[in-house]
Amino acid sequence: MNEAIWSKVIEAANWDPRLLDATTWKLLERKRHFTAGFAPALVPLFAVDDEGWYWCLWCHEAAGIDRRTSVVEYMPNTEFPVREIARTMEQLAVLAASIALSDGVLESDVATFLTRFGVDDFTAVDRLTYIRGDYRERVRAHEAFSTLTPVASLVAGEPYDGDFPRFVGESDGAWLRNSCTLELDQRLLESVRALRDAPLWLTTLDPETFANEAVRRGDIEVAWLAVHSPGVTFATVRHVVEALRESRSNDLSMAIANAWLGENHDGLRRRI
Asked: Distance between CA atoms of 54 and 45, rounded to whole angstroms?
């Protein structure tokens, strides 16, 4: 992994400049041992464990998609590969604290990192005990999640003002046009595909052909959303990312394209 290249990506994403603080970067560096084998909208932060559980920035702005960047957990080859877990740096710090404390030891640099983001009641955070797949209610109890609540911490019926897909209803048009199948569980995907006006990249059973045709039309945004689908080959993704680099000149698009194309994705897995 080229640290300098990926730090430029995080800087260009401009989610929170504190991610590039020297203390934060050093802390994340311990776990940041992966980049290859990922969809291009996933900007890797670190691996939570060694079993395929990652935290990343979810950054579609690079392709001109009108949605805000947030932090997601990425678990490939599962029913729900991408899920939003944090929308602020403070929320990310609480999650990081939960994992750090679950090991029973809080190192001094970790404590400094957490305190900087307002997490100083380590006993309260320890009670959260971040357990994979079972943390929604626990984390939600922390004040950092009282506003800008991410999808993973929402309770039933609670309003949501973010850009992640959550349900199919009368006002679903905006998020449908900016979503991809990687972030839809099977139940939600089936509901979307039952809609008469659902975007074609969400209903197609052949996203690779669909993406390649979109590139030929010059519709890079649609091609980008289409390749963020389970099972798409990295050869097709590469074709779309190369087209993105040729058609966009902004800092974020160029940073993500150069970083992603610089990794040996085919060396690990051949499909998203």
From this structure: 8
Query: 48 and 191 in contact (C-beta within 8 Å)?
Result: no
Token pair recorded at residue 124: 């309260």
Which residues lie closer than 8 Å to 115 by C-beta, 6 or more apart?
A: none
Tokens of 71: 């932090």
Token pair 């995907």 is found at 189
CB atoms near residue 190 (< 10 Å) = 11
Residue 193, C-beta contacts closer than 8 angstroms, at least 6 positions apart = 202, 203
CA distance 34 to 153: 26
Question: How big is the chain, counted in residues?
Answer: 272
Amino acid letter, 83 = R
Dig out the tokens for 206 from the structure.
């052949």
What pTM does this model have?
0.89
Do residues 65 and 253 make contact, with C-beta atoms less than 8 angstroms apart? no
Contact 69, 55 (CB under 8 A): no
Listed in sequence order, the residues at least 6 apart from 198 whose beta carbon sits closer than 8 Å to its beta carbon are 176, 192
Tokens of 57: 């920035």
> What is the distance of C-alpha 93 from the center of its chain?
16
CB 65 within 8 A of CB 225: yes
pLDDT tens column, 134-167: 555 667 778 889 899 999 888 877 888 899 987 7
Cβ(65)–Cβ(178) under 8 Å? yes
- 2, pLDDT greater than 90: no
Here the tokens at position 260 are 């992603």
Q: How many angstroms separate the CA atoms of 31 and 56, rounded?
A: 12
